[in-house]
Write a structure and sequence with these properties.
The protein is of the alpha+beta class. It contains 21 helices and eleven strands. The strands form three sheets. It has a five-stranded antiparallel β-sheet with strand order 5-9-8-7-6. A hairpin with a 3-residue loop joins β6 and β7.
Length: about 500
């Protein structure tokens, strides 16, 4: 790509007029949807950058940070592009680029070449590179490289971690490689960004996780609170806390806490006892769990076309998908929750966690949720489960261990549901619920849900699953958000 060259029309970049208006007004709703690159300074910024507005003739717009860096621009030290939420446009379906970005965010390219990434999404390597350039203005390697550098830049700016630990946390493998790559990209050594003294042991590491407003954090916490497993996680009116399994068996578990960042469009993530190598994965999980990369403007625009949903969207414009920390944990909860109330399912799931989970000593965080290895042959009849439900949990645990099912981010929704419903005891409702809460899939839709069937009509009738599914076709690719709006309306 030539320096400062305009991007192909196929990219996800908003129109030039929209970019100009958003930049001039510093509109937070567009944060992360595009970046402003200034040719006179060779620096790229978020559209909300507080610096003096550059002249329009010196501005070039890019759809993401990777495209700006591939064109030779450096990140602004004032608005800090690493804090912007991700572009949620890739979540509008199961296209190959969308699934490939999920894999990149999971860290695949830290351990494998682009050819493996292409194979995982059933494309040739050359075809995948071409699609990335057309869609994002950058290659898969560019996206991965920018992701690593921006995460390292955030750790350098916000934490007291040693530069060696930051290199490991960002996936560079060696301090020398990190120093060289960082200096080549940003024309400064990593140590030049350090502003804090040496770390104090025992203190939690704090990171800022940006989102695109509006964000209904109170409703998110209420949803998680009603399903929280005592001893594994604690949710109150201000924060979410949970215990985190260690990276290795000989290490101690850690914990995390998520709360609102005062007066900013961001959540505050505090972690303690988590190894540097786990940090990027933890951050990615929290971003998925709290749906921080969603574009509420696009979602509201799509759902508001439906007259039934329009007032619900207007009432809660910042509603997000409440995902879960661990896929197996969500799957067990979903099986337990088949045809029982949320409160009853929580009680039984808590017994499973207490009886089979690994004990820890962290105050009210008392145990880790059991692993598939633990439950594959466990006797679950003493926790209040029917024999059929207990058998289904053991079946799922074994299926995860032998690879029959998984939570692989490259799965399309249809493939995911097909593989899971092939297991005894797993129907469409359970599979879609797991897709919604474990994968945070924006189009998951449990049409067999009785609450949805009764809540969508306003005349007291109940729709069939087929009729509900047909009505919801117009909500694609955001059906999961419609589910949350209807569940909240029913509550």
């Amino acid at each position: 790509m030539n320096q400062f060259a305009p991007l192909p029309e196929a990219t996800s970049l908003p129109s030039h007029q929209v970019c100009e208006q958003a930049r001039a007004s510093r509109d937070l709703r567009f944060d992360g949807l595009f970046f402003t690159a200034v040719t006179s300074t060779r620096i790229y910024c978020r559209p909300v950058c507080p610096a003096p507005t550059p002249k329009a003739k010196n501005v070039v717009y890019y759809p993401n940070a990777a495209a700006a860096e591939a064109a030779g621009f450096r990140p602004c030290l004032r608005c800090r592009p690493e804090l912007s939420p991700g572009d949620g446009a890739w979540r509008q379906g199961d296209a190959a680029v969308a699934r490939a970005i999920k894999l990149i965010n999971e860290g695949l390219l830290s351990e494998a070449p682009v050819s493996v990434l292409a194979e995982r999404v059933n494309l040739g390597e050359r075809q995948l590179r071409r699609l990335f350039v057309e869609r994002l203005g950058a290659t898969p390697s560019d996206v991965h490289g920018t992701r690593r550098l921006l995460f390292a830049k955030q750790l350098l700016t916000e934490t007291d971690l040693s530069i060696t630990d930051i290199a490991m946390a960002a996936g560079f493998g060696s301090l020398r490689r990190f120093n060289t790559t960082f200096k080549d990209a940003y024309r400064m050594a990593p140590r030049e960004l350090r502003k804090r003294p040496a770390p104090s042991r025992g203190e939690a590491l704090v990171l800022r996780l940006g989102y695109r407003p509006p964000y209904d954090f109170a409703t998110m916490l209420r949803f998680l609170h009603g399903r929280a497993l005592p001893g594994v996680e604690v949710v109150d009116d201000t924060c979410y806390r949970r215990v985190v399994a260690p990276a290795s068996q000989d290490a101690a578990p850690g914990w995390l806490r998520v709360s609102a960042w005062p007066n900013e469009a961001a959540l505050k993530l505090e972690v303690h006892g988590i190894a540097p190598m786990q940090l990027q994965s933890v951050v990615q999980r929290v971003r998925r769990m709290f749906d921080l990369d969603a574009d509420p403007r696009a979602i509201a625009s799509a759902l508001s076309v439906d007259r039934r949903l329009r007032p619900l969207v207007q009432r809660r414009p910042g509603l997000r998908l409440p995902s879960g920390w661990d896929g197996f944990e969500i799957a067990v909860r979903a099986i337990i929750g088949q045809q029982v109330s949320v409160a009853a399912a929580r009680t039984v799931a808590s017994r499973v966690a207490r009886m089979f989970g690994t004990p820890v000593a962290m105050g009210d965080l008392e145990h880790l949720f059991p692993t598939p290895e633990t439950l594959a042959d466990a006797d679950l009849t003493n926790v209040g489960l029917t024999k059929a439900r207990a058998a289904t949990i053991r079946t799922v645990a074994r299926a995860l261990l032998d690879g029959t099912v998984d939570f692989a981010p490259e799965r399309t929704l249809d493939t995911f549901v097909e593989r899971w419903t092939a297991l005894p005891g797993i129907g469409p409702w359970t599979a879609h619920y797991i897709a919604l809460r474990a994968l945070s899939h924006p189009d998951a839709f449990p049409a067999e849900d009785l609450v949805l069937q009764k809540t969508l009509p306003v005349d007291g009738t109940r729709l069939t699953a087929r009729a509900l599914r047909e009505h919801a076709e117009a909500w694609r690719p955001w059906r999961a958000y419609a589910v949350l709006h209807l569940w909240n309306a029913a509550a």
